[in-house]
Sequence to fold (424 residues):
Amino acid sequence: MPNHSIRKLIILGGISIIGIIFVQSYWLLKTWDIKDKEFDQTVNIVLRNVAERMSKYNKTLLPKTNLITRQSSNYYAVNINSKIDANLLEQYLLQEMARQSLNIDFEYAVYDCSSGELVYGNYCSADIVDEKTLKKRNKLPKFDELIYYFVVRFPKRESFLLANRNMTLTLTILSVFAIGFFLYSMWVIMEQKRLSELQKDFINNMTHEFKTPISSIKIASDFLSNDANVKNDTRLSRYIQIIREQNQRLNEQVEKVLNIARLEKDSIELKKEIFELNQTLEDIINNESLKLKTGQILFHSNASRQFIYADKLHFVNVIANMIDNAIKYSAEDPEVSITLNETEQQLSIHIRDNGIGIDKENQKKLFNKFYRVSTGNVHDVKGFGLGLYYVKNICTAHGWQIQIQSEPGYGSEFIITMPKMRPA
Fold:
């Protein structure tokens, strides 16, 4: 993946994370605010009903204003114009809270006018409460402006509100996990990118270092092959020929690796030119036929004299790679046929062999880098698995299409389709 793509991915990911955090925080606060308002409204209903029942029991009138005062988030005072029976108050509180389905712990106190102090009532809970909680009596603040009143405090208000937000908390936790997974994925991508760059640098340096000894071996073998003593010795001539062939093969493999490195860096430049297709194909076939010990390469053209605008060097490499693969994966006597077809809009080059064929599963991965079709326990087919990867990338760079038709045991046919060049 190019560096600019990774930068874009990181920026977009960072914006997404900030957006998720902002939206999640907003909804958390919004939900908390809504739940708090619902809680406050429910408590006001409960306390108002209790006050009305106490007023009715004492046969007094309730004050028209400031009936219920909320001093803090969990602390309320109820102002009534009569004395308060603590036992009756607790009974009314429990009944009204049950009626409103407000299942939460509370504690209450009643203001004693004679002593001027709040007399602690009780700690009420629907659950079993330990003795320490019952013995612990919080000193509740007074309201100096009120005379006959009682106070109610909800010590577990926060946990009560959180208990009713399971879905929101679950989504929040999932969001945190998603953000953590994204950050971990970005770290993995960056680490893989770093290792990939190290690998590419190593391969590039290694292949460039190979060029010097390869050139030296070629010069030395050419010099030896021209020596009179070597020419007169059949065995030495054969050894020199082997050295030259293997050196040429090694040079071709190094060139393939270098070409792939250029493709991956997007630094390859297509030097397009106009050339005649039939003649170029014939020249390629003549050169490749020299490598054959047995078998043949046939060429048939159903097209008139056709010119194309392409990088000739890469075009020659593509066709040579295809023929080389056809020969490597063919039987003892390879027969490769190359056909050039013409339609009204396009040209197509068909390269068919009598080889082992390729099944559907392998066809899907055939153009992947370093992928080679398995030949079982036989390893007589040499190569890096870069040939067809190179072919695919060159075809894509030119805007050509390449496809394969093959069945195991019936050979393979590769088809390269390209648009016809319009006459000037």
In short: The longest strand covers residues 117-124. The chain has three domains: 3-163, 181-264, 272-419. The CA atoms of residues 360 and 407 lie 8 Å apart. The chain is about 55% helix and 20% strand.
